[in-house]
Amino acid sequence: MTEKSVSGRIATRSADSSGTETAARVADVLLLFAGGPQYLGVSAISRELGLSKAVVHRILQSLVSREMLQTDPGVPGYRLGPAAVALGASALSRFETRTAALPVLRRLRDETGETSTLSGLVGEERVYLTQFESPYEVKMTVEVGRRFPLHAGSSGKAILAFLPEDRRESLLSRPLLSFTERTVTDTGALRAELAEIARDGVAVSAGERQSDAGSVAAPLFGPDGEPHGSISVCGPRHRFTPERVELWRGLVLAAAEEISRSWTWSRPAGERSR
Fold first, then answer.
1. Topology annotation, domain 86-261
2. pLDDT tens per residue across span 222-272
3. Domain residue spans in the chain?
4. pTM for the complete prediction?
5. Same topology for domains 3-80 and 86-261, yes or no?
6. Helices (H), 66-208
7. 115: which residues sit within 8 A by CB, 6+ positions away?
């Protein structure tokens, strides 16, 4: 073997190693956004990953150019961009739960006459994955692929109530954004409501995220017994009368448990079912 061929192989291995290391760094940066705060800056990422600020800055600019990350005017730091959200929604849409959910969601729409939705948990937020629209002329529709916080609205709170305590408390320890005058941002009141949702298995919302919208939601559990998403029925608030809400609570809970059973999950003993 010649000296030239040996040196060529060494150079190739070095290039492969460098490329693998770069890919790993990019993946590490994205994973920070998936499981951490909504906004992250160069300094925070540099400290967390032990990388130089120059390297972090180059990675961030590359991700921004591909819409995996984006910045917002007047807000320091970066957050996940539309390409990352679309990628996550695409992956979640391929989960077995979506396949199992479709006929159940269609039936739930037909039973209630209101739009039925499926949400997936992505990091510390949720994303609408699909919907079956109400046949009514006046109805509620959702934006598939858009991210929402967990504290506002029944679909989010149905997930938040069943998260492990440390994850739930981490979210509640941060400032909670108010969307309407009905959004619950007082952590004491919200904890009490979440405890009730955990007991009953169903969350109800009236004008919390959108002033004129009402909804009833229940969590979807994976094989690990933790919430991986939620389903809901939603529509104009005036149609969510106490009588209808009481009926729909049972329908939504039964539908959610049917979907969760497709993941071989069953409600832990002692938890109440309505």
1. Beta-Lactamase (3.30.450)
2. 877 889 899 999 999 999 999 999 999 999 999 999 988 876 544 443 344
3. 3-80, 86-261
4. 0.65
5. no
6. 82-93, 96-112, 154-160, 165-172, 187-200
7. 109, 131, 132, 133, 134, 139, 140, 141, 142, 233, 234, 235
